[in-house]
């Protein structure tokens, strides 16, 4: 009945929390945090948990507050989900603690009831023995009955003692197993956190080495065409080798990411010629990456000629900046979005 009330209350609390989330202006929703809100609210409304697991429930509320604070302060989804998971786990601990203490209370009640029954049984036995005595049964028969009753009582007590010892042993083994599981999970979480932190630091360093800038489309590496190619040529210079090697090494480590190579020229000369030149230069960069082990299906190319200038074409320095190749690397396995017109 308590479990039913607990989950029924969680359903009501979930609806309430969804209304609150819909009415507030907050960061992006976090499903784990919403679930944790629901669980903590449901636990707080459960009379048995509130009465028998006060400390555990308070700890769950504190962990939820920590998750809420991280979420409001713009922490990553992984950090918020981890904090929410701890709160959710603490709710489970509170529920189990309440259930265990409720069982302990029930055991005490049953023990008292047993003692009462035993007292009544002894009183009844004494009355029966008196009745037998009044019926003038022999003292020998009365002694025999008393001895038999004593033996049965001893067997019962021994049986109960054995049952209690076995129960205590099972509970100790369960507690030990739960503790080992909790320690293993804590170690696993610590290892995962450490790996995620190391991966993030490594990615940050690699992005810095490539001189890439993060954008909504992904990481953008701008390569000057004057460094990569000779004038009016789509053949890569020898000096471009190191840059191409760095890009290929990055793509080899992050094999799920997609690539879009975009070529650009300045406005000097015919537009059709510039479009063709920019396409050939983008294709040359693609071919160089394929030669270094990058899968062909991950790479797309575009040539925009003089379109999308980044500087004025009215002077030499501006035209030099406009003659470029941009390598756009996606943030995930999805293709890089096309440029908006």
Could you explain the architecture of this structure?
The chain has helices spanning 2-23, 31-45, 47-52, 54-72, 77-134, 139-210, 225-228, 241-253, 271-291, 316-322; strands spanning 213-214, 219-224, 259-264, 299-303, 324-329. With 341 residues, the protein is an alpha+beta fold. It has 2 domains: 2-204, no CATH class; 213-329, OmpA-like domain (60s Ribosomal Protein L30, Chain: A, 2-Layer Sandwich). Strands 1-2-5-3-4 form a 5-stranded mixed sheet. InterPro entries: Bact_OuterMem_StrucFunc, DUF4398, OMP_bac, OmpA-like, OmpA-like_sf. This is Outer membrane protein OmpA-like peptidoglycan-associated protein. One of its GO terms (cellular component) is cell outer membrane. Residues 107-213 form a coiled coil.
Strand-residue fraction? Answer: 5-15%
- Reading the helices and strands in chain order gives HHHHHHEEHHEHEHE
Q: What is the molecular shape?
A: rod-shaped
**SS element count, helices:** 10
Main pleated-sheet profile: 5 strands, mixed
Uncertain regions spanning at least 5 consecutive residues? 18-24, 195-207
What percentage of residues falls in helices of 4 or more residues?
Answer: 55-70%
How many beta strands in the DSSP annotation?
5
Structurally, the number of domains stands at 2
- Class by SSE composition: alpha+beta
* Average pLDDT, all residues: 85
Distance from first to last alpha carbon: 62 Å
Keywords: Cell outer membrane, Coiled coil, Membrane, Signal
Organism: Chromatocurvus halotolerans
InterPro entries: Bact_OuterMem_StrucFunc, DUF4398, OMP_bac, OmpA-like, OmpA-like_sf
Subcellular location: Cell outer membrane
